[in-house]
Structure formats: structure tokens, C-alpha cells
Design a protein that fits this description.
Chain lengths: ~220, ~250
């Protein structure tokens, strides 16, 4: 296996792993909050999350591209902490935006699936609202892990956004999906298929890990 | 009612109302619950018994009026601090257990209070409800009666000052009803726990309570010592309810 090949696999994992981490850090609490809290505009936020779940990644890629480009809203500010276009960091931003509605939306549905009386009974036992919410989230862990798995599935296999904001630059921003597109166009079907196989294997392994995290709850 | 008894009220309710939207579901002029007694709240479905219990547990604030608990006054704009609320616990008609072991469910309230080494208390609570043998079983595999006993054990483990019971034996078989009633009696007799029991079963109220209050349409129609309540009810509606003649 060539070092280029390994580099592509590692970059795919790094970019999608970081994006998944960020989207989970944002999406799980947001989903739990929308699912558990009663407030004005809750339906609107839920509708926005559901819309985000079905948003075409390539359009998100276009938005991130326009935001980060030199003449873009954010890019023109030239802030040091903002990632530049055609870097792995820009790809992480795009994939985070793609994954977080999936993570938040499925988390929201999972916590809403827990019987509402449970929270009242936990509060009666002396739980603070925060303790009760965390316990409900733990009870919904099966669904929360599905939410994270959905987020991972949505970004590891995504090609449009990373192509736009990453540019598919060899040795810098080339990931499995963009490499598959390139090799297919060049007629290197064997290599494209091999890359596709690796992508499938990685997705399968990641989901095995998540299934393991679901623990005994899965068997009940 | 003696003055000594008056002075030892755990709860005093005054002009308490609860309104949901346009609907007034509770309107109680006055009610006391005294230390160490078992009070039964009886009445037909929809009479406001469970709502009253939620207010007593401070799970929701009243719309108007006051709840005096241990001499402190609470109302719609003043809820009790956490440590006060933690002296009260409710066992609900339909127990919601966590998808964990019986042991973990029983220890839950103690862990909330930072008691991570509470083995003795959990063991004691499980022994009290006769479930020591099922400590490591998953809660979701239990029968309805066992689940209700776990709900009781997790409440007992935290040694509440006041235990509120919302139809704790509804839908249970006679064996489990007998078990739970026995636990309630022992708890009151041996530990002096104050209990408020919501039930639509007048026979159960008679077996367990020292005082009974009859609720109808959100109002307390009559409160009396158990013997007097059943033998010489003052209100015709109470009489009709006791004798099963009330149409609702």
C-alpha cells in the first residue's frame, strides 16, 4: 500500500473524526435541549433541524466556500482563527455544518421518545433539572449513538462539500471520496474500487464501534 | 383537633388554587398534614388528587395561595430550595424505572445527593420491599408489582421526611397490594414517616390512613379522622362516594 494511499485514508479519518467530534459537542446538547425544554420557537428550531438533516451537502459546501473565500463575509475579515479555503480545517468546518443537524435532530427525537413522566419522577427523587436532563439523555443513549452514527455516515461518504472547500489537492486535502471521483475520471477503476472498499470498511468498523457503545441496551 | 397537633403540621395549605389555561382544577381553602400521620386523599378520577400531590411535592407551583412546609411559606413566586424539596418524594401510579439494574434504580436518589457509598441504605431499602434477591436484575424485566416495589425502594432509600403515594397499588394483584400496604404501614409505624396517600379505593384508605380527605371537582368536601369519615360522614356527597353511589 503506497504512502499516498495511507495519507488519504488518514486524512479522511482525521477530517471526518474532528467534524464528528465538533458536531456531537454542539448537536447532542442542542438536540437534548430542544427535545426536553418547552419554549417559544421550539417548533421552528425543530423544523430548521429537520431541514438541515436533508440539506444537500454540496450547497453547504458552497455556503462555506463563499463565507471563507477572500472576498467572503468571514474571509474578508482575515481573522487568524478562521480556517482558509483549500485546507483540511475548512473541510472540517463544512463537514461539521453537514453533520450537526443530523446529530441534533436524531438526538432530539431520541430524548422525546423517553416517557415524559420519567423526568417528573426523577425530579421528585431530588434531581435538579440538569441532573434529570442528563439522566434522560443516558436513557436515550441508544438513539443518541444512532444520531452520532448518522452524522458520521453523512460526512465520511460526502464528496461535494469537501471537493468545493478542500479542492482535492494531492497531499493536502485529498480524501477518500474526492480520490474516488478523481480516479474514476482518470479511468483507474481498480484504484477507485479499492478506495471505495476502504471507505466501506471504515464505515462498517465505525458503526461496529458505535454498536458496541450502545452496550446491553441494544440486546433488550 | 388539639393545639399540640396543630403546632406539629408538616403542611398547611391556604386558599390554594391550580389553573391550567382556563380550567381551575384545584381550589382548596385549607388543609393540614400533621407529622407522622397517614392522610388519604380520596375522590373520583379527575377530582384533583394527583394535581394536589404534585403541588405538595413542589413539582409545579400553585397558581394562587400558599403551601406552608415546615413553617416556611411557598407560593407561585417562591419555590423551595433544593434541599427542602429533597425531603419529599412521590411514588407514582406508573413507576418509570431507569434501564439499569434494580440496585442502580434504588441508589439513584442517593447518588443525586452525592452519596456514592450508600450500600447499606440500598440494601436496607431493598430488604424492606423484599427484593434483595433481584438487586442485579434489569429493571425492565420486572413484573408490574416488582417494578412498583423498586419505585418504593428508591424512594425509601433516601429516607424522605414525607412520602407521597399516588395510587401506588392501582392495577396490581392482591398479593402485591398486600405487600405494598404492609410496607406503608411499617414505614409509618417504625420510622414515623409522614405519608399522603392518593387513592380512589375507599377500603384501602380505611385500612391505611388515620385521616381522610374527600376531594370532588378540585375542592375538599370533607376531612375527618378515618373512623368518623366512614362511620359518620357529614356531607351527603361523601356518603354517596363511600357507598359507591356517586355517579361521575
Amino acid at each position: 500500500m503506497s504512502s499516498d494511499f495511507i495519507e488519504i485514508v488518514l486524512l479522511s479519518l482525521r477530517v471526518s473524526g474532528q467534524a464528528l467530534l465538533f458536531s456531537s459537542v454542539i448537536g447532542v446538547p442542542l438536540g437534548a435541549w430542544v427535545g426536553l425544554k418547552r419554549f417559544r420557537g421550539r417548533r421552528l428550531i425543530a423544523a430548521m433541524l429537520y431541514t438541515g438533516m436533508g440539506f444537500p451537502p454540496v450547497v453547504i459546501g458552497l455556503f462555506v466556500y463563499l463565507l471563507l473565500s477572500r472576498n467572503g463575509v468571514l474571509g474578508s475579515l482575515n481573522l487568524p482563527f478562521l480556517p482558509r479555503l483549500f485546507t483540511p480545517a475548512a473541510m472540517v468546518v463544512a463537514q461539521t455544518v453537514i453533520a450537526f443537524p443530523l446529530v441534533a435532530g436524531f438526538t432530539m427525537a431520541a430524548v422525546m421518545g423517553v416517557h415524559p413522566q420519567l423526568r417528573q419522577q426523577l425530579v421528585s427523587l431530588g434531581a435538579t433539572p440538569r441532573q434529570a436532563a442528563l439522566t434522560v439523555l443516558m436513557e436515550a443513549r441508544l438513539g443518541v449513538i444512532v444520531a452520532i452514527a448518522a452524522g458520521f455516515g453523512g460526512i465520511i461518504s460526502e464528496v461535494g462539500a469537501v471537493m468545493l472547500v478542500g479542492g482535492n489537492i494531492e497531499g493536502r486535502t485529498r480524501v477518500l471520496t474526492t480520490a474516488i471521483v478523481l480516479e474514476t475520471r482518470k479511468g483507474n477503476f481498480e484504484l477507485a474500487l479499492a478506495l471505495g472498499g476502504v471507505l466501506l470498511l471504515l464505515t462498517f468498523l465505525a458503526n461496529l464501534v458505535m454498536l458496541r457503545l450502545q452496550g446491553r441496551a441494544f440486546d433488550e | 383537633m388539639s393545639e399540640a397537633r396543630c403546632a406539629d403540621a408538616v403542611y398547611r395549605l391556604r386558599n390554594l388554587t391550580k389553573i391550567y389555561g382556563e380550567r381551575r382544577v384545584l381550589s382548596i381553602a385549607a388543609l393540614e398534614v400533621f407529622r407522622g400521620e397517614v392522610v388519604a386523599l380520596v375522590g373520583p378520577s379527575g377530582s384533583g388528587k394527583s394535581t394536589l400531590l404534585r403541588l405538595l411535592n413542589f413539582l409545579e407551583p400553585p397558581s394562587e395561595g400558599i403551601i406552608e412546609f415546615e413553617g416556611q411559606v411557598y407560593h407561585s413566586a417562591r419555590s423551595p430550595e433544593l434541599y427542602v424539596r429533597r425531603r419529599i418524594v412521590t411514588v407514582f401510579q406508573r413507576p418509570m424505572l431507569l434501564n439499569r439494574s434494580v440496585w442502580d434504580n434504588t441508589a439513584y436518589g442517593l447518588r443525586l445527593r452525592g452519596e456514592h457509598d450508600a450500600r447499606a441504605w440500598v440494601e436496607q431499602a431493598l430488604a424492606l420491599v423484599g427484593l434483595q434477591g433481584l438487586a442485579h436484575q434489569r429493571a425492565h424485566t420486572l413484573s408490574g408489582g416488582e417494578a412498583q416495589r423498586v419505585a418504593l425502594a428508591r424512594a425509601l432509600a433516601i429516607h424522605p421526611q414525607v412520602l407521597l403515594l399516588d395510587e401506588p397499588t392501582a392495577n396490581l394483584d392482591p398479593y402485591n397490594v398486600g405487600l405494598i400496604e404492609g410496607i406503608i404501614q411499617r414505614l409509618n409505624r417504625d420510622q414515623g414517616t409522614t405519608l399522603v396517600l392518593v387513592t380512589h379505593n375507599v377500603f384501602q384508605a380505611r385500612r391505611l390512613a388515620q385521616r381522610v380527605a374527600f376531594l370532588l371537582d378540585g375542592q375538599i368536601i370533607e376531612t375527618a379522622d378515618t373512623e368518623q369519615f366512614f362511620e359518620a360522614p357529614q356531607d351527603a356527597r361523601t356518603r354517596a362516594f363511600i357507598h359507591g353511589e356517586m355517579v361521575y
